[in-house]
Amino acid sequence: MRYATTKYYLCGLAAALLLVLAAAPGQAAAQGKPAATPTVPSAAAGSPEIGGASPVAVPGFWDPKRRPEKPDVARMPVQIRFVTTEDYPPFSFRGEDGRPVGFNIDMARAICAELAVTCSLEVVPFEGLSEALAGGKADAAIAGLAITPASRQQMDFSDRYFRSPARFVARKADIMPAVTPDLVAAKTVGVVAGTAHEAYLRDFFAEVAIRSFPTAEAARAALQKGEVDLVFGDGVQLAFWLNGSSSENCCGFAGGPFTESLYFGEGMGIAVRRGDDALRQSLNYALAQIWETGAYVDLYLRWFPIGIY
Predict the structure, then answer these.
(1) Which CATH architecture has domain 166-264?
(2) What mean pLDDT comes out for the span 125-140?
(3) What's the pTM?
(4) Are the CB atoms for 280 and 23 separated by under 8 Å?
(5) Percent of all residues in the chain with a pLDDT value above 90, rounded to a whole number
(6) φ, ψ (nearest 5 deg) of residue 141
């Protein structure tokens, strides 16, 4: 299962492409470590509006009291063969030159630099990720895979490195700093039918008038036309719509992020074969180091400059 309720998956696009991550041009900055960790605002402090002057809130998924041990050199992988997809922007997609780019690609490259190991990357169809791991054709999958009880039955996961929150969006004249069931009880909220976002609204915002739409595009169009007061959906998808031309600068985030795991998942992890504890622990160490050095912040701001938290 891919993370988030709205898939970017486009059937028939995937094709095999093997890259040596360390040799990719123009990506040396992703491998370097900043001299000092930048000051990062807490996600709990709220998210800046599109076009606002506030700094983007970068979420942190690592407990500062829990520091993964540096892996034993004898158990360290000599090479990590990553697999990903090409159809999940901004996480993994084809750049203008046809090469895979995105947040996941840069994260894989940073992990390899941190562990000082050689890595390769192969693009496969989303449905082929678990087969590539189980069949020994790949060591790790970094492709927006959701950490769920069901996915844990098939593969093991690194620590979480990303989570897309649910967000409300309103027209700019109606943006409110907080969204609670009482504050929006008299409003109409658009949501995609059959999603976790709809289930959450029905369970916790029962007083609002919920209007379900077949697609996210239809819900957003209704917001632009004033047919609904708010839209509730995936924060990443909404942020890129807000920052794109199709929104016509109509709207902005209202209230803070919603991250209840029961509805919106635990987040994204890097998948490995069941029982491959040596690789999983190495990945966890690298991810923690990438956060502590500030490299994660640099990568996050490169791909999410518009504040989804």
Answers:
(1) 3-Layer(aba) Sandwich (3.40)
(2) 95
(3) 0.78
(4) no
(5) 70
(6) -115, 120
Pick the more confident residue, 49 or 56.
56
Find tokens 């491959």 and name the residue.
276
Residue range 173-232, pLDDT digits in tens? 999 999 999 999 999 999 999 999 999 999 999 999 999 999 999 999 999 999 999 999
- Calculate ∠ Cα 173-4-106, nearest 5°: 100
Euclidean distance between CA atoms 99 and 232, whole angstroms: 33
What's the CA gap between 308 and 238, in Å, rounded? 8
Contacts of 157 (CB under 8 A, 6+ apart): 145, 147, 151, 269, 270, 271, 272, 280
Return the C-alpha torsion angle 53, 59, 64, 70, nearest 10: -120
For residue 9, what are its two tokens? 């998956």
Amino acid at 92: S
For the chain, give me the number of helices (H) and strands (E)?
10, 14
Could you tell me which residues come within 8 angstroms of residue 72 by beta carbon, excluding any fewer than 6 positions away?
A: none
At 205, is the secondary structure helix, strand, or coil?
Answer: coil
In angstroms, how far is the first alpha carbon of the chain from the final one? 23
As given in the structure block, the two tokens for residue 129 are: 């990720």
Token pair 């690194």 is found at 158
Enumerate the CATH 3.40.190.10 domain ranges in the chain, comma separated: 18-163+266-303, 166-264
Please tell me whether residue 169 adopts helix, strand or coil conformation. strand
Q: Which two three-digit tokens encode residue 50?
A: 């599109």
Q: Does domain 18-163+266-303 have CATH number 3.40.190.10?
A: yes
pLDDT attached to residue 18: 45
Q: Are strands 271-272 and 230-234 parallel, antiparallel or unpaired?
A: unpaired
Rounded to an integer, what distance in angstroms lies between the CA atom of residue 5 and that of residue 116? 35
β-bridge partners, 190: 211, 231
